[in-house]
Structures are given as C-alpha cells and as structure tokens.
Amino acid sequence: MQHIEVQRRFSAPVDKVWDAYTDHADWKNWAGFSNSWLEKEGSPDKNGMGCIRGFGSNGVNVYEQVVEWEPKKRFAYRIIRGGLPMKDHLGETMFAADDGGTLVTWRGRFDSRVPGMGWAMRLLVERIFRNALAGLAKRHFPG
After folding, report:
1. pLDDT digit string (tens) for 112-127?
2. pTM of the complete model beyond 0.90
3. Complete domains list, the chain, with CATH
C-alpha cells in the first residue's frame, strides 16, 4: 500500500479555500488538468456527498466519487473508474484554521495494479497534488 501526504498553507480563511477547492468543475483552471467536470451532483451540496467528479488530461480521464463530506473540514473520495493503474484508492483532503489562514492536508493511499510500480505511481501522484495546490494558490489566493 502506497501512502502520500501533501500540505500547503493558504493566507485565506477556511471557508474561502474550501469553496475554491471543492468547486470540482473549476479544477481545469488551476489544478493542471485540461478538463474537469461534475458528472453527478451530490447532496446536500452539488459538490458534496455522492457526487462524481471527473478530471482529464492527454486523453486519460479519472472519475472519483465523494464518499465522506464534512463541510469546511474534510472530505474523502475514491477513484471509481479511469485510466490510472491504481486499486483500493482512498483520498481525503482536510482544511484547518492556521494562524489567520488555512492549512490544507491532502492524503492518499492506494495499491498499484502493476506489480513493482507503486513507488512510481506514488511519486507521480505526489507531484500532481503539489502542483495542484500551487495552482490553487496562484489562481485564487495570490500573494
């Protein structure tokens, strides 16, 4: 099982960071994907529990379903289909007030479908999320 944790501090309050991060269809504008969309709305928020979000780049699409939803605190999701060679995936993102700003912690765990390649997938996914959080900061919270 591969484990990843990426953190970034934002100089904006939790509610602002939460709102920007959980607008799944907007990820194409900051997260490094060429496309992002909301395939199925969740409840009680369209981006919340049960929603299915999609991300794509270079002809590879990944679909994730939100499986836990604690507004302005945390949500968790699973990859339900798509082009990444992963299995038993669970990701979660947490938002905590931090000295007038917000600390975002993204954690993920998964196994590789390709024996011996888990370490390479871990490095790739860690880079994707570091870049995504940097993109969120640049687009929504510069300075």
Report:
1. 999 999 999 999 999 9
2. yes
3. 2-140 (3.30.530.20)
